[in-house]
Amino acid sequence: MNPIDTHLSTFVNGEFGDLGYVAPEYTRTLVATPKGDVYSFGTVLLELVTGERATHISKAPEDFKGNLVEWILQLSSKSQLTDAIDKSLMGKGVDEEVFQFLKVACNCVVPTSKERPTMFEVFQLLRAIGQKYNFTIEEEMSTPSNTADCAGELIVAREMMEIN
Q: Residue limits of the Protein kinase domain (predicted)?
């Protein structure tokens, strides 16, 4: 079956995926996979923790021509991963959790798809980070009754639920 004809294809608006989010194996096979989705999600996590865009890294050296994942892999190989963290996230009493979040993101974007976690494993890792702060599990989350009429935000922290 042609990957363009499947629901798994990332063919959108005339292009296959967005640069910086597409897993390396996709460019060879043109087959979207769950591990490719993990890679894309990991890129989004990296954007959140670094404050950088997937295809433009302002903190990278001027001569660096790669994307966010390549920059992260380069920093990791030099044991400089903490240099990637957005400074606005640091010094607020959650530095260890921010670094753990970064490590989860790094696991999602390893070059070899077989070495990436499943999306469920990513969920478990992120949930474990949040449990220290009493983030709830799915059956305790409250969702709006009519998502068409509101922003659709999930309230997941017990503390926030207690305040309301």
A: 1-136
pLDDT in tens, 32-42: 899 999 999 99
Q: What per-residue confidence (pLDDT) applies to 112? A: 95
Instruction: List, in sequence order, every residue forming a beta bridge with 61; answer none if it has no partner.
Output: none
Encoded amino acid at 1, one letter: M
Q: Which of 3-17, 33-47, 111-125, 150-164 shows the lowest mean pLDDT across its residues? A: 150-164
Model confidence, pTM:
0.73
- The yes-or-no verdict on residue 78 having pLDDT over 90 is yes
Residues 6+ apart with CB under 8 A from 119: 34, 37, 38, 41
Inter-helix orientation angle 95-108/119-131, to 10°? 180
Buried b / exposed e across 135-159, counting CB within 10 Å, b at 16+? bbeeeeeeeeeeeeeeeeeeebeee
Other CB atoms within 10 Å distance of the CB of residue 65? 9
Q: How far is CA 100 from CA 49, 85, 104, 122, 128, in A?
A: 10, 11, 6, 12, 10
Give the relative orientation of helices 34-50 and 119-131 as an angle to the nearest 10 degrees: 30
| Three-state SS at 11 | strand
